[in-house]
Amino acid sequence: MRIAIAGDLHGLWDAVDDRILERLDPDVVLVVGDLGEGDDRMSRMVARLPYPVACILGNHDAARDAHGEVLSRQLHLLGDVHCGWGLRRLEPPGLAVVGGRPASSGGGYVLSAAVRSVWGPVPLETSIARITAAAATVSAQDPLVLLAHVGPTGLGSAAHDVCGRDWCRPARDWGDLDLAAAINRIRRHRPLPLVVFGHMHHRLRGGGQRRSFLLDRHNTAYLNAAVVPRHRQDEQGYPLRHFAMVHLQGNQLLWAAQCWFDAEVTLRRQECLYQVPGG
C-alpha cells in the first residue's frame, strides 16, 4: 500500500501538487492539518481529492477564532474526510485511519478556546478513551495508522527531537499526552505500525533540522511530515514540492521517505527514513 502524506499545507497547494499525486497514484493520501488560517478553499480541495483521503485539522485551522465558528465550518466542509477523535475506513485499499485530538497545538494536554467551543471541555481521559475506542473497532489483522496534528509525548525532549520544543528555552517534549497514552493502550491488543503527524516544523528556529522519523522497540514508526514551507526552490532556483511517502504491507512498514518533486513531477531529492531490513 502506497501512502502519500501532505504535511502542514498553510495554504500552499497548486496544480503541480495535483500533477504529482496523479503521477504517484497513491493508494491513500493523508493530510496532517494546518490547511490554512481558516481557508475554505483548502478544506474544499482536500475533501475533493480523487483518492481515498483522511485528514485531521490543526491548531491554525481555527484561525484565532475563539468561538469555534471557523473550526466548525472547516469540519463541515471536510465532512467524513476528517477523522479527529474517530475512525475513517478507506475501502479500498483496506486501511483504517484513527485520528488523534483535533486542532492540537501540543504541549501535553491543552484545549484551545476554539476546541472547547466546538467539542466542549473534554477531559484528558475522555480524549484517550475516544482514540482507543476507535482503534478497538479495527481487527488486529487489518492495517491501522494513527493520524494526528501533533505527535505523542515520549519521543525525546531535545529541541531537534521529533516533537521537541525549539522556539524557546528550555527545550522540552512538546508532544500530545493523550495520544501517547492511547498508543500504549492500543498496542496491548494489536500491532500499530505507523503514527503520522506534523506541526513541529523540520527547520529549527536556531538553525539545523529536526529529526523526522523514529522507530520504537514495539516496531511503531513515528513520521513527522511538517516540512514548512512545503513549496520551495532548490539551489538552482527550480520549484520543489514536498510529500512524505510510505509503503505499508499489512501491519508492517516497508519503506518511508521525505520526497521533493519539481514542476515536471521528477523526483529531485529523496531522504530515505526507513527501509525494512533485507527489503
UniProtKB/TrEMBL annotation:
A Pfam family hit: Metallophos
Source organism superkingdom: Bacteria
Boundaries of every Calcineurin-like phosphoesterase domain copy: 1-202
Cited InterPro entries: Calcineurin-like_PHP, DevT-like, Metallo-depent_PP-like
GO molecular function, one term: hydrolase activity
Name used for this protein in its record: Putative transcripton factor
Cross-referenced SUPFAM superfamilies: Metallo-dependent phosphatases
Species of provenance: Candidatus Synechococcus spongiarum
